[in-house]
Batch of 2 targets.
Target 1
Amino acid sequence: MAMENPTTTGQVPSLNMPYRTFWEKTRRFQVALLFLLPSLILFSVFVFYPLFRTIYLSFFLTNQKGLPTVFVGFDNFIQLFQSADFLQSVKATFLFILYTVPASVVISLFLALLANEKLKGIHFFRTIFASSLGVSVAAASVTWLFIFNPTMGVLNRIISLFGIQEINWLADPHWALLAVSMTTIWLNLGFSFLIIFGGLQNIDQSLYESSSIDGAGYFYQLRRITIPMLSPTLFFIMTVSLINAFQTFGQIDLLTGGGPGQTTNLMVYAIYKDAFVNFNFGKASAEVVILFLLILIVTLLQFKFVEKKVHYQ
Amino acid sequence: MMAIKRGSLYVVLILIALLLFFPIIYAFLVSFMSTKEVLMGHLIPKSFSLTNYIDAFQALPLLHSLINSMLVSIITTIGQIIVCSLAAYAFVFIEFRGRQFLFFLFVSTMMIPWEASIIPNFVTVQKLGWINHYAALTIPFFATAFGTFLLRQHFKTIPKELHEASRMAGLGHLSFFLKVVMPVSKTSLVTLGIYCFLTTWNSYLWPLLVTTDERSRTAQIGLRQLHAQENVTQWGVVMAGVVIVAIPTLLVLFLGQKHLQKGLMDGAVK
Amino acid sequence: MSEVELLNVSKLYGNKQPYIIKNLDVNIESGEFFVIVGPSGCGKSTLLRMIAGLENISEGVLRIGGEMANHWSPSQRDISMVFQNYALYPHLNVRENIVFGLRVKKISPEEREKRLLEACEMLNLTAYLNRKPRELSGGQRQRVALARAIVSQSPICLMDEPLSNLDAKLRAHMRGEIRKIQRQFGTTMIYVTHDQVEAMTMGDRMMILNQGKIQQIGRPIDIYNHPANTFVASFIGSPQMNMCEAYYDGNSQEIRINKDLKLTMTLPKLKTSTYIIGLRPEYIHIPQPNNPNQTIVQVEINHVELLGNDTLFSFQINDQQWIAKWNGQWLFEPGDKISIALDADELCVFDKDTRQLVHSSTRQDHDELQKGVLA
């Protein structure tokens, strides 16, 4: 025994264990590391390394194999900012965000409020409202492609009933981005609805009961209870929709291919074409870096301005 | 008054449901139409014949791509559950130096969109020789910050006394993880599983890049090709393809909606 | 033999933060029911968890069965523990919950079954073996947690506020039940509670802890009669002990509470000074004629609580509210002026600065009376 007859006269036997080795002291860290290892390896290989590699590549010209050849400093970036095509794709991306994010959130909120009514068979409606989450980008895009079809599609048939002239939705520069946005909003609704509805269900019912006793009406409750209590959820879904909008690809690829006249050439689609059609990795990497910074800035701004107004319990 | 209010609510609900579900119904209806019917712009097919479905399967190795999608989704789901739950366990049940830092590192990956790393990742996968292999479609998605958080939130609700009681009984970390934490968290594992299955099944850009031969294509890419091949004429066949590709995920969604809704909320907001 | 021994044990988180537990010395005897009691945040649960091995011991030595156990893992210590929230595995049924630890220890199935049935019979759980914890009532869950401790047959059992989630009636019942089981197996029990009734009724000895320091260790009744300081005096006993400052004059041998209230008292060891005196509510008496020990004083009642068997009423003494507890039913109204009787012999006297006990009566130790009643 290391501690025979410990004295009780105030002399504290030191148990910081001189005989405990470094190996023993960090045992918990080692165990934790074992549990974290798979994630850490995968994150390193597929998230962190590529991020730095992308930044690195963005300063180089690259060859056909995507290997860096000549260091060009900020040339790739300068060229991008002078390129009308790139500026157009940034503009299209922001317009697309403007068209899709607010609309998705507002419509989903409306759907969630409807689905939160206590009615017979409401479960059926909830399932329908969430259904677009179960439809892939590809399936949805192909379906909407047909809906937008100028001659056979149902949309033009409907508007012609009202005497409006047929529109060539996806080929008309005025309409193409709106058409893509409509498809995207529809795709977003399922997920946004599910999240907002979940948030609604989490609000303590007694808040409504007590305010009803005070004589508050539906819209007063909506303004004073539902929206404030729901604000963390709305904030979350706004952030997610925003990031998703920045990353839109599938709709563009299937619906318009970036056209007509670059009007729907969103950033990720532009990156895809530069990187994997033209094999210009240097330029594409510079675009990725800008995209990444944009996402970062927009999310941080959102956190800064919106989160203050968010009510957390 | 109440009856009127309720009645009008139902009218609104039904109208909106029809509007929202219309694309799916429309795809379903068109998938049974002959080319002629499609050209005439009918809404309801004359008969529910399966010719379009048979054509869709014959036009492409659609069956093969469905199997690919199924396997890829299942492997990714299982892999993600294992990798994320291990990480979440460490964050909740092991107090170690550097936990804060590593946790921050995990958070930061949320800020990095997959697209931002897609170019080097493509090169990496190429170098590893994973092009056209399931490995390329599955392994990069085993570790996700979202999954780790979702599970961490649920693990945190497990009373720490449960861990202490098992420590006193002599259970190590791995057995506590396997015998207590995993069974207790069944519901959140299912939530993550459903979400992961849906997103993997529906993913588009990455499979487009890393599969080049027909036999390794996933269903989404199969759909893209079907549409490219049949573009002008065979809308019925294309829609049959849409229905086939959408059915598995719609089923998973309908069956797992309750789970998904509760679990996603917990992971996201709390 | 002392089963659990703590020598100069301290606990602090990090290096410079305040001590959670400071220089704690205590021996817990084999087969003893030892209660640790104190207000929330006093460090009692931390202490228990240190004994269990769930928290590190920052300084000092812990011995179990005479051997230094600081670095033994929880399972090496052969200790069972009952948690406040019972820590039942929600995915396992009652049977699996109870034998969970035995499975880990690789005890044979026959032995497992034997112990399981024995414990379940004792605790009336036999009918619930296949239920999940969520299908059980609070009391049943509590019994499952007890059964889990029993089947482990560990010589030492730790309990952390095991009854605090039960309603009053069940709690009273389980107090007796736990005590009975502990006696039957001769387990060394270390029992943490904030409830002084549990501390008083269950413990062979109890330790009162405040701010990580031992206030007093002893038999509950001794602590009640001779509280070591004002903290213990006010913590143990309900309603709590009445206290106020008073002046002791050594020459006249008088304790002056205020100008109307003086008690004659001989305290040879004490010098003339201001002290804190304490008097339990039940020692404020109904005046009896011809009792020379009594000092009678008039007070104005400002609050009354009729409990049925007892009556509590409060009145002002100097700047303090005092409470008296009289047997029976007294239909006083606030504002009534009544006479009460105090007995100088029943006072506790504490030093004003150190707040330590300097005098207490031995009258309350009823040894003599008890001898007369015992058959």
Note: The beta strands of chain A are 60-62, 68-71.
Target 2
Amino acid sequence: MEEKKKLWGFETKQVVFAAIGAALYAVLAIATNMLQLPGAGNVSIRPAVAIPMFFGVAFGPIVGFITGFVGNILADLLSGYGFWLWWDLGNGLLGLIPGLIYPTIESYRASKSIWKAEIFVVLGALVGMGLASLSEMWVSGADINTVIFANFLPAFISDIINGLILVPLLMIAYAAIVERSGRD
Amino acid sequence: MLVSWRYKYRNSPMDHIDPRARWIFSFAFLIAATSTWNWMFLLTYFIIALIWYRLGNTTWKETRSGWRLVLFMLFMMIVINTIITGGGAGGVVPPGGQLVWPNGFNLFGKTVHFGLTIERLWFAICQILRVLGISMNFILIPYTMDARSYGATFSSLGMPDKLAYTTELAIRFIPSLARNFSVTMDAQRARGFELDDIKGGIFSKIGRMAPLMIPVTMNAILSSEDIADAMDLRGFGQGKRTWLYELRYHRWDYVVLGFSAILIIGGLVASYVLHLGGFVVPQFFYNLFA
């Protein structure tokens, strides 16, 4: 009998998926730092943001959140960028919000599931990068124009492009594993 | 791909401070520094941060990647906030004010009228003090805190055991995942896949990453099932965890904790009870433009 998916479950399996996801996000973020966004200085394209989004969709919101939150902390620690809690929380939300559709997904290859994931990927990037950018108003005293043009837009646009392209590809590849191994 | 932690033991004063005391100090500093725009407080915090940063004995060469990021963000903030938009600077600087160049200035023979005010310029200096002070606290962490201590530290600071263990486990997975990434990259290169110099626009660049990301991700997911089973068989999550990395407070840690308490209580009382934290431009700064 198929086990019912719990939205907020965090058992041993989820601990391991979250840890794997966070480590993967950190490694891929560093590996893909070479792809810089033209004209936006230090902002890299970072295709790795698709990892917390996909882990949220595949394993639930807590796994998605930890993948983004801890993964971003580790990536920054490995790159020597320091520790920026508000951007780590924003990255956590990138994974948590797509994770809200986790219990509703029956097939990862169905176009309905992919559309749902795409919508929540955009929402996740909007809320996650919005929160992280707005926190700069509190921390740095930046005004709303600076927050929108220097912080939010470069991060939001690159995150949704990455998410919209890579999350469906990861979902289809994961569907093949699910079907082959019989896991849920 | 070489993935290595930035931490190394330097026998610096920072190496002898308990990681829990360091996190508490850094967050106390963050809260105190973000509660005020008064330049005297910000200057004091900046000096405290500078002393704290010096305790780490790090070099510019080691920390420059972090500083480049901070300086870029700071530059964007100052240029857009102070010079281009001239907005309300987060509602801190009142509208109006005294112009830096009331009669304009000469640029290539033409008189340029520019709306930069003394108040906005002073606000930019306060922003620099605040952001650099906070950055000095947090940039230091990767270089001076052992990655093995994170799980035990977060657990001891009240984070749920499962979450702290996830952090610990993620740190341990990094070398093997980096190795898997290298193997996959070599395998794709052997098939003629170009990875070093991906041509084309953003969409094609991202699309070209898929043959790398998908196998690495799927392999990691497949192996995680066995790890979870092994952990379940050993009774993971059944009781309180113990940690290999042992943490113990020393006398100087209590000094750091006491100082953190003074910093946060003093900062909040000064700002919200005594109302001393407001933005003010000192007279000497006005005199510079008289």
Note: Confidence is low (pLDDT under 50) at residues 38-42 of chain A.
